[in-house]
Amino acid sequence: MLGAIIGDIAGSRFEWNNHRSKEFDLFGNDDIARDACFRTDDSVMTIAVADAIMKIGTDDEPAFKEELIDSMHKFGRADMDAGYGGHFYRWLLHKEREPYNSFGNGSAMRCAPAGWAAESLEDAIRIGRLTAEVTHNHPEGIKGAECTAAAIYLARTGSSKEEIKLYIENNYYPDAFKKSIAEIRPTYEFNETCQETVPQALVAFIESTDFEDSIKTAVSVGGDSDTLACITGAVAEAFYGIPQDIAEKALQYLEGEELEVTKKFVSRFCCYK
Q1: Engineered SS bond to 48: which of 73, 75, 182, 202, CB 3.0-4.6 Å?
Q2: What angle do CA 5, 161, 13 make, to 5 degrees?
Q3: What's the CA gap between 268 and 109, in Å, rounded?
């Protein structure tokens, strides 16, 4: 889960000012962009999912979805300037409780806790689906969350990159790995859909050499940098773990209940193989 937050923070300053290179500092200690790093809606909603899972579990699916909606409203409305998409912003603003058929990448960016809390691959897919359905109930929105949760579960339970890659190709995105990052990068544009964000984020993970490199590779693609790196970081954490110094720096960007929930979830679920 913390890997998703780190990716979000690292990519935040480049979302509207893409940096198509891996030469930068994760937390902005360079002269590349004047904007500072910050946590965005990606982190806020990831934390909301974690909070709901810890409070009620996922066995009673209708009850979990109601708890998740409450948690998303609570954390989201506490910071309405976190960078939400238009439809989701209105969903928060009016405290709506019905989904709106979105296939935006918001479903994939927030589902990391599903991959960690799951007790099996099937469970990861199920929880990923539940976290999407409360808002992003379009088939592509659900697919993005399920695929990301499944990749996290496979990564944390010892699957190789080749096994993860084949699973994604066979079950979700058959063409995901036909292009390398070097081939994607020159023409990739800002895109908020799952189908044009999740595959690219997973290619960045597959090509990476360690956790930090995975985040930098994802950011270098361009486009929706914070969400790409959030998804990549979520899977990379499960596969590589996170260096302690990077984890400690990331936690400094959170405070209050967001920090409390994050530390509690990581302590409870995120044990590396």
Answers
A1: 75
A2: 25
A3: 21
Q: What is the pLDDT of residues 111-123, one digit of tens each?
A: 999 999 999 999 9
Q: What pairs with residue 146 in β-bridges? A: none
Contact between 112 and 121 under an 8 Å Cβ cutoff? The reply is no
User: If you count them, how many residues does the chain have?
Assistant: 273
Q: 64 and 57 in contact (C-beta within 8 Å)?
A: yes
Angle between helical axes of 61-77 and 86-93 (0-180°, round to 10): 100
Rounded Cα distance between 116 and 36, Å, is 30
Segment 45-71, tens digit of pLDDT: 999 999 999 999 999 999 999 999 999
What digits encode the pLDDT tens for the residues 122-147? 999 999 999 999 999 999 999 999 99
Please name the residue ranges forming H helices in the chain: 2-12, 41-56, 61-77, 86-93, 106-109, 112-117, 121-133, 139-156, 161-171, 181-184, 198-207, 211-220, 225-240, 244-251, 256-269
Q: How many Cβ atoms are within 10 Å of 19's Cβ, its own excluded?
A: 18
Alpha-carbon separation of residue 67 from 28, 59, 63, 185 (angstroms): 35, 12, 6, 39
Please tell me the distance from the alpha carbon of residue 133 to that of residue 125, in angstroms, as a whole number: 12
Question: Could you report the per-residue pLDDT of 90-102, keeping only the tens digit for each?
Answer: 999 999 999 999 9
Cα 107 to the center of its chain, rounded Å: 8
All structural domains of the chain, each given as residue ranges with its CATH number in brackets, are 2-269 (1.10.4080.10)
Contact 193, 140 (CB under 8 A): yes
